[in-house]
């Protein structure tokens, strides 16, 4: 899936009264989404309306924990879909080296994954993302002299926050018609921004029969119960 093209040039048009009305509705939606436990969707929309264009870090482990479909896709496509090939390549190098340890960097191609509206939090927070896995395959002699193959890896996710021209938003009683969120960027009242993040390094015993490691517990960062959230967001004023 290709990266989104975006809504066009920032501030290319002058805002009208309708655009200011849309901004007011989107600010109300930020509050409503946060109150409805759509914390990531709320935080990303707020950053869009803050109009800075600065990048945001994606909490990759939280995405994998929240959305089982994304976790299953990552495990099957990026990890298990390549593990046997990586193992064979590393073992071949191990034999070629006469049984000396092997370190082999690996990386999967960036591929797209789209969150659907069954998960409204991540659907509105990111929509579709690009993801891949980077890591290192190692082969060392085990206690019995047989080679042991391991993979130390990270899951990487990136995208650009923007609104498709034909996309609107409906969360609960809040509804903003198609095209209006994207218009905020073109009239300079909001600004698209890049998003990226990497999970912590995990170890997987390739060929050991062990399960793929679970994501780390995401904790409370960014949630309503996070005591440091307002300080990081600049306080409780939504429309600054």
Topology:
Layout lengths: L16 H19 L3 H12 L5 E2 L2 H7 L1 H29 L5 E6 L3 E4 L5 H6 L2 E14 L5 E15 L7 E3 L2 E3 L3 H7 L6 E6 L3 E4 L23 H5 L7
Core attributes:
24% strand; 240 residues; alpha+beta; two-stranded antiparallel ribbon; elongated
Strand element count: 9
Number of helices: 7
Provide the structure class: alpha+beta
Number of domains as seen in the coordinates? 1
Intertermini distance: 35 Å
Arithmetic mean of pLDDT: 87
Q: What spatial form do the alpha-carbon principal axes imply?
A: elongated
Largest sheet, in brief, is: 7 strands, mixed
Low-confidence stretches: 224-240
Task: Give the H and E element order.
Answer: HHEHHEEHEEEEHEEH
Strand content: 15-25%
Outline of the structure:
This protein has 240 residues and is of the alpha+beta class. The chain contains seven helices and nine strands, in the order ααβααββαββββαββα.
Commentary on this structure:
- It is elongated and about 75 Å long.
- The protein is built from seven helices and nine strands.
- Helix 1 (17-35) packs antiparallel against helix 2, helix 1 packs across helix 6 and helix 3 (60-66) packs across helix 4.
- Strands 1, 2, 3, 4, 5, 8 and 9 form a seven-stranded mixed β-sheet that branches. A two-stranded antiparallel ribbon has the order 6-7.
- The protein has helices at 17-35, 39-50, 60-66, 68-96, 120-125, 180-186, 229-233; strands spanning 56-57, 102-107, 111-114, 128-141, 147-161, 169-171, 174-176, 193-198, 202-205.
- The protein has one domain (17-215).
- By secondary structure, the chain is an alpha+beta fold.
- It is 35% helix and 24% strand.
- Residues 224-240 have low confidence and may be disordered.
């Amino acid at each position: 899936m290709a990266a989104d093209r975006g809504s066009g040039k920032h501030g290319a048009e002058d805002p009208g009264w309708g655009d200011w009305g849309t901004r007011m509705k989107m600010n109300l939606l930020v509050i409503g989404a946060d109150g409805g436990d759509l914390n990531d969707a709320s935080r990303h929309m707020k950053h869009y309306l803050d109009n800075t264009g600065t990048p945001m870090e994606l909490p990759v482990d939280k995405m994998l924990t929240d959305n089982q479909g994304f976790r299953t896709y990552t495990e099957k496509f990026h990890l298990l879909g390549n593990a046997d090939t990586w193992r064979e390549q590393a073992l071949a190098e191990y034999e070629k080296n006469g049984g000396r340890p092997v370190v082999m960097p690996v990386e999967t191609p960036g591929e797209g994954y789209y969150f659907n509206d069954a998960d409204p939090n991540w659907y509105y927070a990111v929509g579709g993302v690009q993801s891949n896995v980077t890591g290192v395959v190692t082969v060392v002699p085990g206690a019995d002299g047989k080679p042991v193959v391991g993979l130390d890896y990270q899951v990487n996710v990136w995208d650009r926050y923007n609104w498709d021209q034909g996309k609107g938003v409906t969360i609960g009683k809040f509804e903003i018609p198609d095209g209006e969120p994207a218009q905020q960027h073109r009239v300079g009242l909001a600004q698209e921004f890049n998003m990226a993040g990497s999970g912590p390094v995990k170890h997987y015993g390739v060929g050991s029969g062990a399960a793929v490691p679970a994501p780390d517990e995401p904790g409370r960062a960014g949630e309503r119960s996070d005591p440091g959230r307002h300080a990081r967001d600049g306080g409780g004023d939504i429309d600054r």
